[in-house]
Input
Amino acid sequence: DVVMTQSPLSLSVTLGQPASISCRSSHSLVYSDGDTYFNWFHQRPGQSPRRLIYKVSNRDSGVPDRFSGSGSGTDFTLRISRVEAEDVGIYYCMHEVQWPWTFGQGTKVEIK
Amino acid sequence: EVQVVESGGGLVQSGGSLRLSCTASESTVNCDFMGWVRQAPGKGLEWVSIIHRGGTTLYSDSVKGRFTISRDISKNTLYLQMNSLRTEDTAVYYCARNARDLGHHWGQGTLVTVSS
Output
């Protein structure tokens, strides 16, 4: 199985300040079709997860442009340019390159 | 916005069975995959099973041989038949509709509690 390792596991951020979460995979996430099937999800307290970013750097519909994704191969980063109160919760990375698809452990983001 | 709604969760004894259902507001075959993700209390996320638009099914090792994923295309409904349930299967089960570039939509989840 591909192991997804996130860091840090918790993050306390001041409103309006940037935040960054890293995710490293144990195998390359480049599929045979040339695409990299790597996603970021956000789960607010008491809610179901919502996908924010797909294929490394593409924002889903309705996701604010303060969220951005980057990376390649096995190393990926989610950046929030200016953290807002609604950004609290747990962020998960996830791959879809081979079965089983797996998630990272999650990074808990709170407001300082 | 695609709507996904799960049902069928509940309390069951170890060794028992449950069937979860998931109805989507859009076709279950007009997306690349549909599947089930579970989240044990206070824990992370785990893919349990998926079905490809072409009908191929895949299962995690933890449920293989006990759970069966299926769909009724005419009803836009996905199912998860769970047999031989164990206490470690206790979790919120989410249905996910994965249309890759076109969206990845989850339901609100349904709680399955397996008692010993």
Q: What stands out?
A: The mean pLDDT of chain B is 95. Chain B is about 0% helix and 55% strand.
